[in-house]
Amino acid sequence: MKDPEVLKDCKKTETFLNAVVTKTGLTKVGEVFHHFPNSGFTGIICLTESHISIHTWPEFNRVTFDVFLSNFMKYNDAIAEQIHDELLLLLDATEVTTTRLNR
Q1: Which domains does the chain have, with CATH numbers?
Q2: Rounded to whole angstroms, how far apart are CA atoms 70 and 89?
Q3: Closest CA to 54 of 87, 22, 86
Q4: For the chain, what is the radius of gyration of the CA atoms?
């Protein structure tokens, strides 16, 4: 990240992820976010389609996130890519390693 402080902003990421879930028509069934004092955060949004999770380590300028969406009832690969791309923009990522698994 250009600015590792973004990896401490749990509320901004939580707000973004909830907005993108609504915007893309996914169905949220629950969520948990936890901000570690003076550090990063972890969070997960559970969806009927699967889940989105994120874990940050600002002290190492690192973040990992998963966007798992099932294609059982609807083909969701484009939505998963959209969330991936928008989250990278939000975090202002400079080095990216992505693994894609078609489900």
Answers
A1: 4-91 (3.60.90.10)
A2: 24
A3: 87
A4: 13
The token pair that represents 57 in the structure block: 């380590």
| CA distances for 89 relative to 10, 24, 33, 40, 83, angstroms | 16, 17, 20, 18, 10
Global confidence as pTM: 0.90
Query: 11: which 2 tokens?
Result: 């509320």
3-state SS, residue 72: coil
For the chain, the first-to-last Cα distance in angstroms comes to 29
User: Residue 3: its pLDDT value, please?
Assistant: 85
Strands (DSSP E) contained in the chain are: 28-35, 41-47, 50-57, 62-69
Q: What's the pLDDT score for residue 103? A: 64
Residues in the chain predicted with pLDDT less than 50, given as ranges, are none
Cβ–Cβ < 8 Å for 70, 50? yes
The residue among 63, 67, 68 whose CA lies nearest residue 95 is: 63
